[in-house]
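Allow me, if you will, to draw on your knowledge of protein folds for a short while. I have a record of one protein: its chain in single-letter code and its fold written as discrete structure tokens. I remain grateful for any guidance, and I place the record below:
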Amino acid sequence: SLQFQVEEQIREEVGCLTERRVSSAASLVVDNATGEILAYVGSADFFNDAVFGQNDGIQMRRQPGSALKPFIYAEAFHRGYTPATVIPDLETAFNAPKGSYTPKNYDRRLHGPVRAREALANSYNVPAVRVAEEVGLGNALTVLQRAGFESLKLGAEHYGLGLALGNGEVPLWEAARAYAGLARGGVVHPLVPVLRV
């Protein structure tokens, strides 16, 4: 019944977003404790060729945006940060191989000194990039790979500090597995697609 509920929710949500040219969506529901997949919906309508319904949005690689930030902050906490650590959210030009990199927050504002908990809760981009730089880009990439983001196969230089903002493409499958591991305190297990035969 959960499978049917998720399918219906996706159809309703996509229907509400038609004006914004959204034609499909995907959802993977996982039991965090066991890794068991409880519902798997790869598209809004499998039989609709007009919206490429047979493309599986769970296996497709997409840029995850801010979904990678919690893992990079977790590495910072492992290295001595606390939720109360103050991080400057100020305009900053970070050194990058192809010139300077100046990230912007989604709200186009700067918020001054903010605590790590506030920066992460509000998904501020500038502090996230600063945290990635401070933990080391190579360490940030390693932590993401250990969390289960196997699709991030290229070197840290390829992604640059934009990795903190999700510029590497990953499938929803890997994101769900990584977040289940995060819920288990960092213990990553494979997802279980077949519960019984």
Q: What stands out?
A: The two ends are 18 Å apart (CA to CA). The chain has a mean pLDDT of 93. The helical segments are 2-16, 69-78, 116-121, 125-135, 137-146, 156-159, 172-183.
